[in-house]
Design goal:
615 residues, alpha+beta, 8-stranded mixed sheet, two-stranded antiparallel sheet, binds flavin-adenine dinucleotide
Length: 615
């Protein structure tokens, strides 16, 4: 089996976009002339490119990786051609507004495309992904010169972008960065070392625009002393053409467990005369600007988590239908019993059903957050806009951390479904798992995300943002209740929501009493608990939407008759898809949500042994 067997789950993407987010009815002057039909065509075209051109790179890129030769980085064979095809078809512009030369699509549609390309080959998708984030930062915060000279080249994909925060002593502690920027007329000279820079050097574009954090000589310590600079690999002549090579040089690349086709570079900055950099905004505003890029990238990493998980689940499902092993449990004593495909075994069904619910729930989260961000930007000042921003802020660390960790779990289960073959490179799932591990580490480790969630986001607006999230959950529970037939699930989600509320109250009480250690010790547990509740709410909403649709598709078929139902689902793809939505909430509520009881118990335990232990 090769990467070329990769298939996009278009029906589920379209279900979230058109049934759950109701994009057919989404009207705004910014999207004049666009409609659901166009969005469906975009998804179909992205899927075609991903399946035919990008997915075949995945295993090959993993086998060869990037090569470092005398300061230059060579991407794996096929990357350059695929990147050219990607650019030619305008995909680098898909996430940008029309007024700057982008396609101007709703953000949720653009993010659906990002998922499609990422699932096909996460390493390849890193290059346009970081470029898009750099372009957005310049569009929002850059000078007029940056907007006219750099932005069009980034949007067209002619040049690419990076984000350079990390230094050897400054990983999670970004404020410990030591790269120095000294004023030199209208520009600055930067000197230091940046490490782990994704796409920091490669052969896909002729110029690279580094978005680099550095501190000016008199700046205060910590993050408040950081400023943001644009540091091009090649400086520009007055007419905009490429000029001299800037003093920023790749001195090596990392050899990694996954995403091997994505270059991870050490950059020596300013070893000769100092690298020329141009400040974004003013001195000391660096972290504030960089956060714009980081918030967007955090949703993007959540998308990476579920995109790779979706590909892994799909591979596991196909394998489980093909692989024949053993007999049905009821017949295990009969040596001559019929041998069955492993999908008939209860334990395999457990792994597949849970993975499916998780993947589809996470996809709903990513696309919904993209839509929320879209609504907020279109109408930032109204009460509704404010509410959208609040929800987005609270849920961004959950999207990043929950989707990356759960996505990794799904890839792990996909290997398990494959048995020994899953451990071997003949099948794609071991690569999916290796690729997926980085998502929990970069863009702020998941531990840092959890602390951000508990320490900042849940406390935002005196806790009002958190209350809004709970209210949003309640509305979804009511929808499921209204659909009828889900009393058990409604009860289970309600209990999980109450556990989240009680856990938050408990930790907030500790915080108010001056205990910072215990709340932070449990921050990750809170993130998991919160994530489970949010995913359950999204799956509940999907089930409430799917139930009447299934009844319509079923026509006169009696869905309460197991034989009639099975025969319908086996012969009708749409009925099977919709029934899967009802199964998802049942599986998630019964097999995943009960762990929230354990999490709440852990969070409310006052044991401090680990904090005080002498290791
Ligand atoms: C493949 C790859 C690509 C990358 N791409 C980029 C890029 O494009 N640009 C860029 O700037 N960086 C990039 N990074 C760097 C990445 O963002 C950092 O590795 C990450 O932020 C963690 O920093 P660190 O590795 O120094 O780990 P550390 O900060 O040393 O963390 C180690 C452990 O300690 C924990 N920890 C640290 N501080 C705290 C704290 N205060 N409280 C609780 N726990 C804490 C962490 O959660 C983690 O578990 C990349 C890294 C990799 C491996």
């Amino acid at each position: 089996m090769s990467g070329s067997s990769f298939k996009v789950n278009r029906r589920d993407l379209e279900f979230v976009l058109f049934e759950q987010l109701d994009l057919d009815a989404f009207q705004h002057p910014a999207y004049a002339g666009y409609d659901g039909e166009l969005y469906r065509t975009v998804i179909a075209e992205a899927s075609r490119l991903a399946e035919e051109t990008i997915a075949p790179l995945n295993a090959k890129g993993d086998a060869v990786g990037c090569r470092f030769e005398a300061g230059e980085v060579r991407t794996p064979p096929g990357y350059r051609e695929a990147y050219q095809a990607f650019r030619d078809a305008g995909w680098t512009a898909v996430v940008h507004p029309q007024d700057v030369g982008g396609q101007g699509l709703p953000v949720s549609v653009a993010l659906a495309c990002v998922e499609i390309f990422t699932a096909a080959c996460p390493a390849f998708s890193m290059y346009p992904g970081l470029t898009a984030a750099a372009a957005n930062l310049i569009r929002e915060r850059g000078s007029d010169w940056m907007k006219s000279a750099l932005l069009p080249k980034l949007i067209s994909g002619e040049w690419s972008g990076t984000m350079c925060l990390t230094e050897p002593q400054a990983g999670s502690a970004v404020g410990d960065a030591r790269t120095i920027a000294t004023r030199d007329g209208d520009s600055y000279r930067l000197r230091g070392t940046k490490i782990f820079v994704s796409s920091g050097e490669h052969d896909l574009t002729e110029n690279i625009i580094h978005m680099m954090l550095a501190r000016t000589p008199d700046a205060p310590p910590g993050i408040k002393g950081l400023s943001l600079f644009v540091v091009p690999k090649f400086l520009l002549n007055a007419d905009g053409s490429l000029g001299a090579r800037n003093d920023v040089v790749c001195s090596g690349i990392e050899h990694k467990m996954g995403i091997k086709g994505s270059s991870t570079c050490t950059l020596s900055v300013g070893d000769k005369d100092g690298a020329v950099g141009f400040i974004v905004g003013r001195e000391g505003e660096g972290i504030q600007h960089m956060f714009l890029m980081m918030n967007e990238a955090r949703i993007g990493v959540g998308v990476q988590g579920y995109a790779v998980a979706a590909a892994a689940y799909d591979a596991a499902l196909r394998y489980a239908k093909d692989r024949v092993q053993g007999t049905r449990a009821e017949e295990f004593k009969d040596a001559n019993a019929r041998r069955v495909a492993i999908i008939e075994h209860a334990d395999v069904r457990r792994m597949l059903a849970i993975s499916k619910a998780q993947v589809e729930g996470m996809r709903a989260l990513g696309l919904w957050l993209a839509h929320l961000g879209n609504l907020w930007h279109l109408d930032p000042d109204s009460a509704e806009g404010q509410k959208n921003q609040d929800l987005l802020e609270v849920l961004t660390p959950i999207c990043k951390a929950y989707c990356s960790d759960t996505g990794f779990d799904v890839t792990r289960q996909a290997i398990q479904v494959h048995g020994g073959y899953g451990y071997c490179s003949e099948y794609p799932v071991e690569q999916y798992m290796r690729d997926a591990k980085i998502f929990s580490i970069y863009e702020g480790t998941n531990g840092i995300q959890a602390m951000d969630l508990l320490g900042r986001k849940m406390a935002r607006n005196g806790g009002m943002s958190f209350m809004q999230a709970l209210q949003w959950v309640n509305e979804r529970i009511e929808k499921l209740e209204g659909a009828g037939g889900f009393d058990t699930e409604v009860g289970l989600i309600g209990k999980a929501r109450d556990r989240l509320g009680a856990s938050a109250m408990h930790l907030s009480g500790l915080g108010m009493a001056g205990d910072a250690g215990l709340p932070m010790f449990h921050a990750y547990d809170v993130l998991l608990l919160f994530g489970d509740v949010v995913i359950a709410a999204l799956l509940a909403e999907q089930a409430a939407l799917a139930k009447p649709m299934l009844e319509r598709v079923a026509g006169g078929v009696d869905l309460s008759n197991p034989t009639a139902r099975r025969s319908l689902l086996e012969s009708n793809d749409e009925a099977r898809f919709l029934a899967g939505k009802l199964d998802n909430i049942r599986v998630f509520a019964s097999q995943v949500l009960p762990r929230t009881a354990g999490l709440a118990h852990i969070i409310q335990s006052t044991d401090r042994t680990a904090l005080d232990a002498v290791f």
